[in-house]
Amino acid sequence: MLIRNGTLLDGRVVDVRVRDVVTEVGPDLPAAAGEQVLDAAGGTVLPGLHDHHVHLRAAAAAATSVRVGPGEVRDAAGLAAILAAAAPGDDGWIRAVGYHDAVAGPLDRRLLDALSPPLPVRVQHRSGALWTLNTAALREIGQVEHPDGRFHRADGELVLPDRAPSLSALGKQFSRYGITGVTDATPEQSRPDLENLAAAARSGALRQRLHCMAPADLAGAAIAGLTLGPAKKILDDDSLDLDALTAWIAAAHDRDHPVAVHCVTASQLVVTLAALRAAGGHAGDRIEHAAIVADDVVADLADLRVTVVTQPNFVAERGDQYRADVPADEHAQLWRVASLRDAGVRLALSTDVPFGAGDPWAAMRAAVTRRTPKGVVLGERERISAEAALAMFLGHAEEPDRVRAIEPGAPGDLCVLHAAPTQALARLDADLVAATVIAGAVVYRSVR
């Protein structure tokens, strides 16, 4: 296809011919016979956005779940009302997500029994680290004698019904945002898990280019429909083990496979950096989240050349709760961006959908403004420009900090906006997405 009259971020107005890859970029390209032509009318043409940390199955399941976080529910009565109104899924369960103790205190089976209808109900904490089940749900899984119905991620004892949600609606939403590629950061996926995701990509249910974190024993494997990324490790503060983490990293590196370590506390980051230094670095190693970064580890992040994939959107989504829960002297350490970039740390942004909202444009705005839901600026020194925020969603899947360009030979994945660059950067709004092109095919076109 041929995109006419597009404005690149550097201000040049060009035509772009694109198939599976970009084949030509220049002024006044002639249309070939029968070639599809899209007139950008001076709007911005970008490389398609890449969301560098998502959870596909969880995001698809969340679309059929009820949200019960502080943004939706204020107290126990509100939680009871929203659960009573919730429709159970085909499995007969009510699945709720996004819970925080600020709503009704720490949930256990007895409190959930008092607040929920007499159906199996499971409620996920917004961290993703805890599920709470009511008695009806415990009976369904054969654990009616469980003391409190609370199942922590680290325990590994909970097996829940798999809703096997379709990824089609999620893929369409990605396309509306101008997203042409995603990195699935779900940990410990088996080859069959990855084959299922690849099948969704090959079938067209998920049109985006798919990059998946995968265990090191799959290093070098070929799965049609996706590419394989680093091995993922989730850490929990109560089970931090430097020697074990070092050995795990070294074993992955021995297979020529990078690692990605989930770090949402200062302790987790300190242990991870020590393990990476002991095991030795590898191209493609990543830190996921880096939710809290103390000043004394910034230089280590830069020195190790590890890529930090972070989510400043949580400032916009949860910032007021952080101000209440996190000591004031640690506020400047939350979801850092500008100071890491200025120190030479490799950086990329993502949404962490469904644990964060899935709109990358909102994440960019959060990186620029650092405003909480109540409008308070949290981490003013961590603000970055709109240009920098956008660039952090334009990286390669394998090298998230290396920004893609629109040039011959580049992947044929593009995002066309209704506005020229100056106006687009001033707004950073998903409503500006006019068309999304993947492998030379239009997968989304806005109606105006």
TrEMBL record:
EC numbers for this chain: 3.5.1.91
GO function terms (MF aspect): hydrolase activity, acting on carbon-nitrogen (but not peptide) bonds
Keywords: Hydrolase
Domain (Amidohydrolase) ranges: 36-444
Keyword Hydrolase: yes
InterPro entries, per database record: Amidohydro_3, Metal-dep_hydrolase_composite, Metal_Hydrolase
PANTHER family per the UniProt record, alphabetical: IMIDAZOLONEPROPIONASE, PROTEIN LONG AFTER FAR-RED 3
Protein name as it appears in the record: Putative TIM-barrel fold metal-dependent hydrolase
Species this protein is from: Mycolicibacterium chitae (Mycobacterium chitae)
Gene encoding the protein: nfdA_2
